[in-house]
Every structure is written in structure tokens, then in C-alpha cells.
Amino acid sequence: MCKAARVRFDQTWFRYARRAGWALTEVNATVDPGATVVVLGRNGAGKSTLLQLAAGVLEPVRGAVLDRPPVVGWVPERFPADQPFTTEQYLTAMAALRGLRGSRSRSEIDQWVERLGLGEHRHLRLGALSKGTAQKVGLAQALLVPPGLLVLDEPWEGLDSAARTLVPQIVAEVTRAGGAVLISDHRGEIASLPGAIRWSVQNGTVVTGVPAPEPAPEDVILELAVARAEADQVMARLSAEGHRILRVREERA
């Protein structure tokens, strides 16, 4: 069982340099235990900055992030794979940082290696992994100990279809245990997270409690698979015919 807490942004401001513009301004928001909060917004709006503040990777310039739980699982959009470790060595080191050693460490590592399909990559160096496989390693290290807060920055990026289906399962497991999940999404994957609370980041301002859009009753949602070389042409034709493209994803072997 994780030790959860109500994480609060209290008049939180952030900028990356003293004379730079504010990336986030006057954020007042709360992530409750057991809640899933999905952060929406265009690229560059401040989603990743907000998530890094929640995880403790960044510190506010003004205000505070209060009541962060003792165990925070943090998975950045791009896992830093340029490290001189194999997958096994890295996960063992991260387990030790979480206080896991010996048989308990091996048990947790084995569980996540198997669940995320990392077995054949266990003894490969991190730098030799594909982006999707490296993301799985990042996800595994964040879950070695049940987190009170799990922060996922675009977790579906680069994952194969099997791993993508695991993300909502993992989110549900964390929240059922009383943990909170803060997750960014620009791919439309929020549909796989029933009951998620929506936040929106626009020009450095965070809006909470964003209502879900209501689909028109006459709309039918289709999912198509096309060759990569034809994707732009197909999307252009669909747009020209008045159809809405809700999301695009690339399947990887």
C-alpha cells in the first residue's frame, strides 16, 4: 500500500531563467489521493513544466508545491538513456535508492521486467535500447515501490500497442491503492482513462475541472491503419472532405 497525500499547487509560479518569461503563473490546483488528472494543452504550453514541479524535478520560483508524498514515481517524456548501465544494473540501482535490496529487489525487478516485456533487453546497455523500450525501463523504475504520486509525461510516446494498453491498467492499479496519477496527453489517449479529471494549460495558465467534449450524436469514430508513406495524403484527403482527425499514432514493431 502506498502512502498517498493531497498534492497542492499553492500560488505556484515558474520560469527557466531570471529574465525569461513565466512558463507558469499563479497555479492553484489540487491532486487528491486516488485521482487521475490528465493535463491537456498544445506543445510548449507548460504541461511538462507543471509535471516536473509536481514530481519535484523543478522547484517553484514563487509559491510552493505542498504535501508531496514520500514516494513519487516520475517518468519523463524522454527517458535519459545515455547512461553506462544495462537495464538490469539500472533497475537494481534505482531499487536500492528506494530501499529495496536482495530478494525483494529481485522480485520487484522481475515482476516489471516480465510485465513490460523487457526480458530480452535485460542485459543490454540503456543506450542500445529503442525509444519505446527505454520508456518501458523508465516506467518500470517508477513502479518498483508503489508510488503515492505517479507522474507520467506523455507515457504512450514510442510504446508498442501491447505496452500502450498497459498504461491505463497501471494507472488504475495506482489509484486503487490510494495513489494519485498526474499524466499529460496530446494523443487523445484520455479516452482509455475513465473518470479522469481534466486540466488544461494555456499560455502558462492552468485551468482545472475542464469538461469533456460532447461528441455529436451523428458522429461515428473510425480507426484506420495506412502505410506511413501514404499517411499525409490520406489525412489531407479526409480533411478536405470535412472529416475530423482526432489522433494519429505510429505503430512500432
UniProtKB/TrEMBL annotation:
Family annotation (Gene3D superfamilies): P-loop containing nucleotide triphosphate hydrolases (3.40.50.300)
Domain ABC transporter: 7-229
Gene Ontology molecular function terms on file: ATP binding; ATP hydrolysis activity
Keyword ATP-binding attached: yes
UniProt-listed PROSITE patterns: ABC_TRANSPORTER_2
Key words of the record: ATP-binding, Nucleotide-binding, Transport
Domain of life: Bacteria
Name assigned to this protein: ABC transporter ATP-binding protein
